Amino acid sequence: MKLLTLPSVVQRNVFELLGFKQLLIISFCSKRTRYLIQSLQKYRWKDIKFVKYSFEEEDNIYVNVRSENINEGFILSPNTLEQLVITPMDVFGMGSEIPICLHPIYYGGRYIYDKEQTQIVVQGIHDYLYQFFGSSIDYEVESIEDQLPPILKNINRTCIKVPENMTAEELEAYFTASPNQKYIQLEGDFNGNLCPNSAILGAEHLKVNCDGYGDQLLLGFRGKRLACTGSFRDSTIFQFLNAWRLNRGFHNLESVEINSSECNNYGAADPLKDMDVKQLDRPEDILHITWQVRRLYSSRNVISMFPAKTWKLGFSSRDYLIRDGDGEKASVSIKNHDVYFALWKGNSCEIENIND
């Protein structure tokens, strides 16, 4: 390859004329070519925020690379009746024996793969991109399919639709490969059942839409932020708040959001009545507490239009608890079907006058 014999200044100028998809294809030529691209174009990758794998209808897989200045990617499409034979190519470092090749029409923007080999193909692509970009960016998985996507290591954020009748053991096996994720979102037919000490409960931010009781989620959560839509027993809410107040767990916790819609009315049971609840000194004052979170976008189209950003969440309350031992304070609000809890430390707090 004559490009490799040119001076590095010329090589850099050539690479700068090419986009991500073109550079990716050139990197398939040899390990030396890949290392050269990584070395000379490293400055272009430093602003990349995430690589996302989206598993959508008809077995199409969208791979999106996103930063403030880069919004590129490619599509994996299963072979169809019109494409009975895949002529394997040595792409993504997987070797020519793996059934994947460039689409003959959408050069660089689409690949054809054998859907019977989805796990091997996606794993190979992820391993290649992880080596290509490094570990400093987020790698995300989103799926709207009624089956779990391929199991991948080094994933930071996951949003999946839990299939119907999936066991706790099957769900746990999926997340064991990538524990301690920054963000996990469970939708679909999740019934609230998890394995003891589940890897899911170690996520930094866990968002769950639960069809069953979420008691196990709340009492076993080891991360920072929990948001759950589902049913909770009144005794579980009391047990959680009391355990935090007595300094018996939840040491990483920063906030909890619970919405039970019409399932529960926590205000009627008043889980705070037997606790040493404090209130702000002045009756006209109320504390407004907020925090920032970044979740996965809900669709590939949204990703292509807007850069990654955060959402502001929060609530207002006069009530707060003080934790034994360290004196840490946390606001709490229990009204009708909603429960909110957030530490003052690590969140934004602002006292407002309700009469203004």
Summarize the structure in short:
This protein is of the alpha/beta class and 356 residues long. Helix content is 24%, strand content 31%. Among the domains are: 1-46; 48-146, no CATH class.
State which percent range the strand residues make up: 25-35%
Main sheet overview = 15 strands, mixed
What is the radius of gyration? 24 Å
Topology pattern, helix = H, strand = E: HHHHEEEEEHEEHEEHEHEHEEHEEEEE
Q: What's the multimeric state?
A: single chain
Termini distance? 73 Å
Structural class designation? alpha/beta
Tell me how many strands there are. 18
Low-confidence stretches: 297-308
Instruction: Based on Cα principal axes, name the global outline.
Output: elongated
Rounded mean pLDDT is 86
The DSSP helix count reads 10
Helical percentage: 10-25%
Strand order of the largest sheet: 4-5-3-2-1-6-7-8-9-10-11-17-16-15-12
